Fold this protein.
Amino acid sequence: MKKFYLILLLLGPLVSTAQRRENFSNAYLGVMLHNSQAGISLVNSFGFIRYAGIGAGVDITSFCNSLMVPAYFDLRLKYPVGRFIPYALGQFGKPLYNKENALSYREETGSTIPIKLNGRHFFGTGLGFQYRADKVWLFASYIRREYHMRYEGKRALPHSFDTEFPAAANVFMVGFTF
């Protein structure tokens, strides 16, 4: 908890600077395609200078037919050219994901142990752009995410069972920028 407050205090000046220069801060609200699963996304980006923004985001989507809510930090590096703003982005966060009975393991005694799947953390990088169409800002982006998942059982899993594994996802987003 102390680390959270320290980060909050360090980011305070960036947020206050971004509020004074409203034209550098953006909110991205859109729909997404997360490995062929539909979802929605909201990212708040506080622009502390013209070419960069840092913020937080949350998505609501699904993974392996279960609800997943990734919450993350977002960094965007922009290069404005008139009505067109291309950007590169990076994300790091935690996928709030818990799937009960993802697998089951049969012990030597014949009893079955249910195994659940949890999200540990993820990181992603991508490219995108904003475009001003009259009074409305639109955006589109592509992000490649690497999720790190973990299998957990009520009892210790066998040593031959790999409990952690990566899962990659392609994320396409389109929407409005405010």
The mean pLDDT is 83. Residues 142 and 172 are 5 Å apart (CA to CA). The longest helix spans residues 2-20.
